[in-house]
Amino acid sequence: MTSSPAGERVVLLVPHTGRKSNIESAALAAHQLEAAGITVRVLVGQDDDPLSNHPVLGTFEHVLHSREAAIGAELVLVLGGDGTFLRAADLAHAVDLPVLGINLGHVGFLAEWEHDSLEEAIRRVIDRDYRVEDRMTVDVVVRDSGLETIGTGWALNEVSVENLNRRGVLDATLEVDARPVASFGCDGVLISTPTGSTAYAFSAGGPVLWPELDAILVVPNNAHALFTKPLVVSPRSTVAVESNSDTSPALAVMDGFRPIPVPPGSRVEVVRGARPVRWVRLDSSPFTDRLVTKLRLPVVGWRGPTPKEPLEEPAEQPPLTAVDRETRDFDGGPTR
Fold this sequence. Notes:
Blueprint: E1 10-15, H1 20-35, E2 39-43, H2 49-52, E3 61-63, E4 75-80, H3 82-94, E5 98-103, E6 113-114, H4 118-126, E7 131-135, E8 138-143, E9 149-155, E10 158-163, E11 170-176, E12 179-186, E13 188-192, H5 200-203, E14 216-221, E15 231-233, E16 239-243, E17 250-254, E18 258-262, E19 267-272, E20 277-281, H6 287-295, H7 322-330
Parallel strand pairs: 1-2, 1-4, 2-3, 4-5, 5-6, 5-20
Antiparallel strand pairs: 7-20, 8-9, 8-19, 10-13, 10-17, 11-12, 11-16, 13-14, 14-15, 16-19, 17-18
Helix pairs in contact: 1-4
């Protein structure tokens, strides 16, 4: 990767290349940015052929997924679904850059806008007409039975502690703030951020948390026990999952693609992340609207709150005369 001259504007473009229409959308976005004088850097996979052979995208600098990919850029632009967004957020988080998602997939819960607004979204990037919100993350440490660190990581959505033995269960103990909560056999345990509450944790039966809420969500996954309800704990808490020494091996998978081995007798510790993801917002639509739209929730019959009529301001009264004051005092008003 070449370094960018001082003052040069650079955007890292992260496209999903699974469909020809996606590649053409990425080409249109790159051309629009380049026409505005912005240097475009394109993230590619190990198989670079779909992009290197493209008449437009093949002319830009191509970079692989690494920490260096986003260095020198002002923004990471994602064209794809939630999986593409999470991989792009990994690059943006590494160097503390804002990330903007345009949905080219199905649900695209993490994307800010949809494909039909792509041209307007690029114009807003060119004009720097957007704001940035911080989204909570979690930091993860996996320790072996001797409490030696096996690996570390972070997640925007969730860390999923997953059983590797599909013929049995993972025997685990859930701990919050160094105190045991429950032991059970399970397929795994999900520890999620509010952003991730609409993803894997939601599918496993967890509640939806509004992203403005600071909290850690814990969802046992197919647990065999009486008390296996989801928990919402303080963002200042430390959540840990200990696997028994005689149980099967597991994996701690962050955001679906960054795994750390969890041998029997290990523990996975999760705390609030030290660095948030800087999330680009293009409008002020509330999370409620996004939830209804993305999940296609039925809202037929909603009328909305009754508007409150403004209170009429009292008419200005003339100053009291001496007679008025005497009358008021006589009628029970305040006296000297």
